[in-house]
Specification:
With about 290 residues, the chain is of the alpha+beta class. Helix content is about 45%, strand content about 15%. A hairpin with a 5-residue loop joins strand 3 and strand 4 (about 90). The longest helix is centred in the last third of the chain and has 24 residues, at about 245-265.
Length: about 290
């Protein structure tokens, strides 16, 4: 992945499906997030990768925002299937229920999006909330959606890729985020917090996108916007813009992890955690409770 050091790559591709983008050569932001944990975790994830329900829902939200009217026509709410077990009991987990579901799925037309009833309701609510939001509507008025960018990184020679949700004619790179909480306190932590294996650390993704846009010499890279949309009623929407200082935080880490990957690729070594003993220092956020309190 991302090894064409002998040639300079700059590709801007329109109309590429997500599946085609997945197969395209290049290091992407989600790779960087895994590599931050350790190169070994990145290798393991490539072997066992499967989409989580949250990721599938987020992908459906992006497709819906790209073309709301057409997407509504493609949504099908999945009914509940049940059948008899070996002992004659009715169950949704029986082999007969699975067979019914597989037959139902096989009859669907290509491109159909299958959703649970609650997910379909929430997805519709999210789309309508974005359409009612004046600033979000203005952001998406004119620009280019789901554009695939593939570039050569001058620092490492690696091929990088990204797929911004929207690049407005006004120069804003817009990234849609479905979230359980769009409030400032929660979502700011999603942007900057890098603790834990499921850390979002969105500032790293933003910096990767900005770096790729800058290398094309066709798109601005200093205006990055997150549109955070809550996944449940009332489907709250908030816009967060990153300033140069925020992008610089992510840029330092983006550069470090990209160089780490290039080094692992050169040596064909994919280490996990450091092997030395690490002293645990009590974090500032730990609260002490006195006996008897």
């Amino acid at each position: 992945m991302g090894t064409r050091e002998e040639e300079d790559v700059t590709e801007i591709i329109e109309g590429l499906s997500f599946e085609e983008y997945e197969r395209l050569e290049g290091l992407r932001a989600s790779d960087l997030k895994l590599l931050r944990r350790s190169p070994a975790h990145w290798v393991a994830a490539r072997k066992t990768r499967r989409d989580s329900p949250d990721l599938e829902f987020g992908r459906a939200f992006h497709a819906a925002m790209e073309d709301p009217k057409t997407f509504r026509d493609r949504i099908v709410v999945e009914p509940e299937f049940s059948g008899r077990t070996k002992d004659g009991k009715e169950s949704t987990r029986s082999a007969e229920a699975r067979e019914k579901r597989e037959a139902w799925l096989a009859d669907l037309r290509p491109g159909t999006t299958v959703l649970k009833a609650e997910d379909a309701r929430n997805l519709t609510g999210m789309i309508e909330a974005c359409q009612r939001h004046k600033l979000v509507s203005r952001l998406f008025e004119s620009g280019r959606r789901e554009l695939t960018i593939q570039v050569s990184d001058p620092e490492t020679g690696l091929v990088l890729k990204c797929r911004p949700d929207f690049i407005s004619d006004g120069g804003f790179v817009v990234d849609l985020k479905s979230t359980r909480d769009a409030s400032h306190g929660f979502f700011t932590r999603e942007i900057f917090s890098d603790r834990g294996s499921d850390s979002r650390y969105y500032v790293l993704q933003a910096s990767h996108y900005a770096h790729c846009c800058r290398l094309t010499k066709r798109f601005r890279s200093d205006h990055f916007v997150f549109v955070a949309v809550e996944k449940t009623e009332p489907w709250g929407v908030r816009i967060y813009s990153l300033d140069e200082a925020a992008l610089e935080v992510g840029e330092r880490e983006r550069s470090r992890v990209t160089r780490l990957y290039a080094e692992c690729l050169r040596k064909n070594e994919w280490p996990c955690y450091d092997e030395h003993a690490e002293q645990v220092v009590i974090p500032q956020w730990v609260r002490y409770v006195e006996d008897g309190e």
